[in-house]
Amino acid sequence: MRVLKPFTTEDTEDTEVTEVFRSPFEALGKEQVWKGDEMKDNALVTRELTWRILQAAFEVHTQLGPGLLESTYRRCLLHELRLSGMEAQTEIAVPMAYKGLEIDCTYRADVIVEGKVMLELKAVAAILPIHKAQLLTYLKLTKIKLGYLLSFHSIHLRDGLCRLIA
């Protein structure tokens, strides 16, 4: 049986630690985010924004519980987001074009927060693959990179939560 000894700095060969980061976001700095292979602005802003959005969604679910209509959750979440100081729009028309043909259709995103995060709300027992496909399509059409699918009919909202990146 092999006994493991604790790691010490004596086990390293002339290794000098110049900076220690608590998270990868801290290492990136407050003004950078990964976008493909390049660094881009707003990493910490998006991280904080999504945390605040989810906090608002959990508050709505805690107060209302499962079993209501999707429109009720939408209005309450929109109110909670605005109380938290976030700019949120609801029922935003999603533009549709096919090979140069502009199609006037009634596809609508449930909630867009700060123009950066799309929320697709559901009041269903389970999130199906078609729900994820719908959100991904909306994300691609609007060129928004981050979206959350929230099913408020879950006993615990964490079980009805899905994060998608386009």
Walk me through this protein's architecture.
This protein is an alpha+beta fold. The protein has one domain. The protein has helices at residues 24-28, 43-64, 70-83, 129-142; strands at residues 33-35, 38-40, 88-93, 96-98, 101-103, 108-113, 117-122, 146-151, 161-165. The strands form three sheets. Strands 3-6-7-8-9 form a five-stranded mixed sheet, with helices on both faces. The chain has a two-stranded antiparallel sheet with strand order 1-2. It has a two-stranded antiparallel ribbon with strand order 4-5. Strand 7 (117-122), helix 4 (129-142) and strand 8 form a beta-alpha-beta unit. The protein is globular, with a radius of gyration of 21 Å.
Mean pLDDT: 81
How many DSSP H or I helices?
4
In total, the number of strands is 9
Helix content: 25-40%
Order of helices and strands: HEEHHEEEEEHEE
Oligomeric state as shown: single chain
- How far apart the termini lie comes to 49 Å
Q: What Rg, in angstroms, do the CA atoms define? A: 21 Å
Q: Biggest sheet: strands side by side, in what order?
A: 3-6-7-8-9
Structural class by secondary-structure content: alpha+beta
Low-confidence stretches: 14-39
Q: Which percent range describes the beta-strand content?
A: 15-25%
Tertiary shape? globular
Overall number of structural domains:
1
Describe the main β-sheet briefly: 5 strands, mixed
